[in-house]
Amino acid sequence: MNQATLFGRNARAYSAARPQYPDALFAWLRDLAPAHDLAWDCGAGSGQAALGLSPHFAKVIATDSDERQLALAPSRPNIEYRLAAAEADLGLNQQVDLIACGCSIHWFDLPKFYERASQVLKPGGLVAAWTYDWPWTNSARVDAVLLKLKEDILGPFWGENSAHYFDRYRNLPFPFAELECPHFDVEIAKSRDELRGFLATWSAVHGYSEHHGRNPLDLIEQELAQAWIAEPPALPMRAPLHMRCGFKRDHS
Predict the structure, then answer these.
(1) Can you tell me the distance from the alpha carbon of 14 to that of 118, in angstroms, rounded to the nearest whole number?
(2) Residue 205 sits in a domain of what CATH number?
(3) 47 falls within a domain
(4) Number of domains in the chain
(5) How high is the pLDDT of residue 19?
(6) How far from chain centre, in Å, is Cα 70?
(7) What CA dihedral angle connects 72, 74, 80 and 83, to 10 degrees?
(8) Is 203 helix (H, G, I), strand (E, B) or coil?
(9) β-strands 79-83, 59-64: how paired?
(10) At a CB cut-off of 8 Å and minimum separation 6, what does 95 contact?
(11) Following CA atoms 42, 158, 5, 239 in sequence, which dihedral angle do they give, to the nearest 10 degrees?
(12) What residue numbers bound the domain in which 194 lies?
């Protein structure tokens, strides 16, 4: 499953519907980093993490493999966007204080990415990778419809990498000196329409649409509306971030 194809074709919707990360997350990472000179947002998409990092680091390099997503990323004087894969040589050697991977590391060739990370990080440099899994609410009726979408309709279209974010990164290989992470969450929707917009950004929705030529969200639209009326979920809907964070092991 090709990330650039899946997300690039729907870049504008992705940019509009994916949540912004809390500033407290970036402030925590800033305080842990060995310095605040350079952060690398790897798998930047449309720049949500780069934007959050920019007030806390002198420079942010944000890379992604799809130019259509980068074209929609917010411009800031200290953010440099580059079209590059996560494993690419950026010409950096022990210069990066923090590598941030916001909902992206599960797409990478992990052995090659980790080798690159060890090359670019300063001694004591930090790697942080976070994600959210499938959205759930406090409404059993709404959740039953969401589960139907996730498993019965989209089931064949989840890539192998989906195991990592549905497992909340617990079994993600992570060869760093790991830290315990505080709780952070994000707002994903204030209405049913916003929830649909968020769901539309998931990879399996794109895969289903390409295969069948129709939007799988239409298949649950009426059922979701009925469940929403019968047992409304608490709003705004929020999702926890599941994070792995650690220091480069070789501090020499």
Answers:
(1) 30
(2) 3.40.50.150
(3) yes
(4) 1
(5) 87
(6) 15
(7) -10
(8) helix
(9) parallel
(10) 37, 38, 120, 122
(11) -50
(12) 3-247
How distant is the alpha carbon of residue 117 from its chain centre?
A: 18
Burial code of 111-120, b = ≥16 C-beta within 10 A, e = fewer?
Answer: eebbebbbeb
The reply to whether 252 falls in a domain is no
Cα separation values, 101 from 219, 250, 251, Å: 33, 20, 21
Distance CA 139, CA 182 (A): 26
The letter for the amino acid at 98 is L
Tens of pLDDT, residue by residue over 116-167, are: 999 999 999 999 999 999 999 999 999 999 999 999 999 999 999 999 999 9
Q: What is the pLDDT of residue 10?
A: 58
Task: Name every residue whose Cβ is closer than 8 Å to that of residue 9 and which is 6 or more positions away in sequence.
Answer: 68, 206
Is position 210 within any domain?
Answer: yes
Residue 81 contacts by C-beta under 8 Å, 6 or more apart in sequence? Answer: 44, 47, 50, 62, 63, 64, 70, 73
**Per the domain annotation, does 89 fall within a domain?**
yes
